[in-house]
Amino acid sequence: MDPNAPILFFDSGVGGLSVLGPTLKVLPNAPIVYAADSAGFPYGKRTEAEIASRVPALLGRLVERFHPRLAVIACNTASTIALDHVRSALDLPVVGTVPAIKPAAEMSKSRVIGVLGTEATVRQPYVDDLAAKFAADCTIIRHGSPELVELAEAKLAGEEIGTDAVRAAAQPMFDAPGGDRIDTVVLACTHFPLLDAELRAAFPGVAYVDGGPGIARRIAWLTREQAWPGAPSEGLMLFTSATRTPSLANLARFGIGDVRTL
Ligand code: DGL
Fold it and tell me: Span 158-169, mean pLDDT?
């Protein structure tokens, strides 16, 4: 394995940064290529058929161009719909992002769990399967919020976003029947951990779980015998269309210094 072979991160927008952050904590010298499919954003509003054809094709082109050692679909929507298609299309390890219902069920005392994702993710049979397998004795209340995705994009672009906007976007989940007993919320969209501070301020006393740290451990395990460069390098972020980009100061916190359009 070439020590300079990158890890390829993929999302519709900035959400994958919430997976990249924990990954760099365990693999600080990993070379990074981060692709954001801004031309397809937001995935949460797309159909299953659109995601299932778009994501494997795009990842195929990125793999040909960058020869990554591993690809991370740092997006719950793309993973719950297209992970199998991507794995069968690509000849390299592919790590997906699926809602962290299992750890949430291990933590919840009230046995009422909120699953906050995109509209596309919360309707996936994949979520039903996880709930049946790991949280059969829990009530699962799902809420799809395109507003929170937009708020995360705005925050990373350097805009001021208030706690009130975040509260208004997630409140319907707590207002649903039984929602007042939610004690644990699965952040089932990679954009949402980027709003961690605002969510905690809006709904104190609730525990939040996301897949980022677990995915980082999985990446480290899958690459455990591989060589890495001796020092960190500047990460590359690619967009599939000209778009509102995150601020360079925010990207620098994730080791990204080079931003381009594909
Ligand atoms: N970050 C994505 C996810 O984890 C999708 C956001 C969107 O494009 O709607 O589901």
Answer: 96
Contact status, residue 32 vs residue 256, Cβ threshold 8 Å: yes
pLDDT at 103 over 90: yes
Per-residue pLDDT, 211: 96
**76, 115 Cβ separation under 8 angstroms:** no
Cα 211 to averaged position of ligand 1 atoms, centre (Å): 13
Indicate yes or no: pTM above 0.85. Answer: yes
Maximum distance among all alpha carbons in the chain? Answer: 54
pLDDT 10s digits, 104-126: 999 999 999 999 999 999 999 99
- Distance between CA 168 and CA 203 in Å, rounded? 11
Q: Which of 234, 232, 224 is nearest to 33 (CA)?
A: 234
State the chain's mean pLDDT as an integer. Answer: 97
By most ligand atoms within 8 Å of CB, the mutation choice from 18, 37, 118 for ligand 1 is 118
**Which ligand 1 atom is nearest residue 11's CA?**
1
Which residues are 32's β-sheet partners?
A: 7
Angle made by CA atoms 184, 190, 194, in degrees to the nearest 5: 80
Return the ligand 1 atom nearest residue 45 CA. 9
User: Strand, helix or coil at 8?
Assistant: strand
Mean pLDDT of 76-92: 96
* Distance between CA atoms of residues 77 and 72, nearest Å: 13
Residue 258: closest CA among 28, 38, 33? 33
Length of the chain as a residue count: 262
Supply the residues annotated as catalytic. Answer: 75, 189
